[in-house]
Design brief:
Distance between the termini: 46 Å
Helix content: 25-40%
Structural class: alpha/beta
Bound molecules: zinc ion
Strand order of the largest sheet: 1-10-11-12-13
CATH class: Alpha Beta
Number of strands: 13
Number of helices: 11
CATH superfamily: Metal-dependent hydrolases
Largest sheet: 5 strands, antiparallel
CATH topology: TIM Barrel
Order of helices and strands: EEHHEHEHEHEHEEHEHHEHEEEH
Strand content: 15-25%
CATH architecture: Alpha-Beta Barrel
Number of domains: 1
Radius of gyration: 19 Å
């Protein structure tokens, strides 16, 4: 029997992108981050319908749970399937047994109607009692009016804004544009090119940043609280922690794993109830960041959620059938890829 911890939190995820693995190559090979967005992610998100989104979210939530991650702070973008999308994601997570904080990423990329519908989806979901934040894609795809509308909606609903900030060069002006709007309850994601201090919690996503070639964001250099996310590349937080530690170490030889581990546990500020969940791991020293940093392959054996319900026993989910979830995902991935 290994060590026991609370359930882990993935503090920035995109459950809509679970089906992206294996997608067809883009028509033109992207040569910078802006082209990666245009050639890969904006083609994928535009092709999603609610059936695809449901299959994507179910598989993403299941893979999170099997990695001992019982909470996901999600950021959705599905511009041709906006209405009801946050319910689809919330229901998929609830079915599997994962807690979710949902947001729809508002953007002006699809004209004023798309902006309005995005704001309305956040508002509708929050008003109906959904656990969420107000999502914004990023400052560089929004006018000042849209940013102000999202900030105002979040304040009205008593939640923060969940927004990508200065992820790459194309969003380098984000700090200046958000300075008068950002609040302590905002979740500001990436901040790789952020040129000033903004209020809010910084979500650091080391694997995604490396994959997009945007550079190292030096999250430890900001005064903000830092949390750890995957930006849609699974939800294995021990794996992301190991990467966060070595990325930190590559930048600063004096870096210690305790810092990156604090970014994992800071996720409890976003989803406090995950700390009461119980994960039994395949390894005895999950309570030691120095052990975990140098021990690949630690697995979640048992996961116990709210009211003592066993959600995973010996690595097998109790509520859903893994083969069925994967088969659904494969079927919807075929439909999705045919549209790309
Ligand atoms: Zn993201």
């Amino acid at each position: 029997m290994g060590a026991v911890t609370g359930g882990l939190v993935c503090s920035h995820h995109h459950l809509y992108s679970t089906l992206a693995r294996g997608m067809p190559a883009p028509p033109h090979t992207p040569t910078d981050f802006a082209q990666i967005l245009e050639q890969v992610w904006w083609r994928l998100d535009a092709a999603l319908d609610l059936d695809m989104l449901r299959a994507s979210a179910r598989l993403g939530a299941l893979e999170a749970l099997l990695a001992g991650t019982t909470g996901i702070v999600d950021h959705n973008e599905s511009p041709n399937a906006i209405e009801g999308s946050l319910d689809v994601i919330a229901e998929a997570c609830a079915e599997v047994g994962v807690r979710a904080v949902c947001a729809y990423g508002v953007t002006d990329r699809h004209g004023p109607d798309g902006t309005r519908r995005g704001l309305e989806e956040n508002d509708r979901f929050l008003r109906s009692g959904g656990r969420g934040m107000v999502g914004v894609h990023a400052a560089f795809t929004c006018t000042d009016e849209t940013l102000a509308a999202a900030a105002g909606l979040a304040a009205d609903r008593g939640v923060g804004v969940h927004i990508h900030v200065a992820e790459g060069p194309s969003d380098a002006a984000a700090g200046e544009r958000l300075e008068s709007l950002a609040q302590d309850d905002w979740l500001i994601v990436h901040c790789v090119r952020l040129d000033r201090s903004l209020p809010g919690t910084i979500a650091h996503n080391p694997r995604s940043n490396m994959n997009n070639g945007v550079g190292y964001g030096r999250p430890a250099h900001f005064p903000n609280e830092v949390v750890l996310g995957t930006d849609g590349i699974g939800a294995d937080m021990l794996e992301e922690f190991r990467l966060a530690y070595v990325a930190h170490r590559a930048d600063d030889i004096l870096a210690v794993p305790d810092t990156a581990w604090s970014w994992v546990t800071n996720g409890y500020r976003l989803i406090p109830d995950c700390e009461n969940d119980r994960v039994t791991w395949s390894y005895d020293h999950v309570d030691s960041p120095w052990h975990v940093a140098f021990t690949p392959g630690i697995r979640a054996l048992d996961v116990v959620g709210a009211d003592g319900e066993v959600l995973v026993r010996n690595g097998v989910p109790t509520r859903v059938d893994t083969a069925e979830v994967r088969a659904q995902a494969a079927e919807q991935a075929r439909r999705l890829f045919a549209r790309l």
